[in-house]
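Lecture notes, continued. The same structure-token format from the folding unit now serves as the input rather than the output. Read the line below as a description of shape only.
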């Protein structure tokens, strides 16, 4: 059974481990603690059978939400967990009053782009040389709330 809840301090060891697995630029514990205190941030953890298997977060400013990070345990990817996690995150954005959600994703990360497209996001351009490690471009994607 999949469930979601707000990320708490007790989740940071797992979240930080997953962050190191999923991203070139993992965040420090201080950064994560700051995120948990950040009034514009919403961070979710995804649980499968009471085990944390993913996390995702947004910043909501005015009527716009920016997806900060989405990650699922590597051995559990391609099973739909990222899709339901992203949908839960989008619902949190709508609940917080956002009218649009945006994100950047590596041009080479076609799997993530497909997940975002299944959630309704559309590509609206590319930021060239966005990623420090590879100088790869970032696809800019947007989702607008249906009126």
């Amino acid at each position: 059974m999949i469930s979601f809840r707000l990320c708490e301090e007790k989740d940071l060891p797992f979240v930080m481990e997953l962050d190191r697995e999923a991203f070139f630029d993992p965040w420090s514990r201080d950064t994560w603690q700051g995120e948990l205190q950040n009034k514009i941030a919403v961070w979710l953890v995804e649980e499968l059978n009471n085990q944390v298997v993913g996390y995702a977060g947004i910043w909501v400013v005015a009527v716009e939400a920016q997806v900060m990070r989405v990650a699922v345990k590597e051995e559990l990817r391609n099973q739909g967990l990222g899709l339901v996690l992203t949908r839960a995150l989008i619902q949190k954005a709508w609940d917080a009053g956002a009218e649009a959600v945006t994100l950047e994703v590596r041009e080479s990360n076609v799997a993530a782009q497909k997940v975002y497209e299944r959630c309704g996001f559309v590509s609206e351009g590319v930021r060239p040389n966005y990623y420090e490690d590879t100088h790869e471009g970032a696809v800019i994607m947007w989702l607008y709330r249906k009126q």
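Point for the exam: Residues 81-95 form the longest helix (15 residues).
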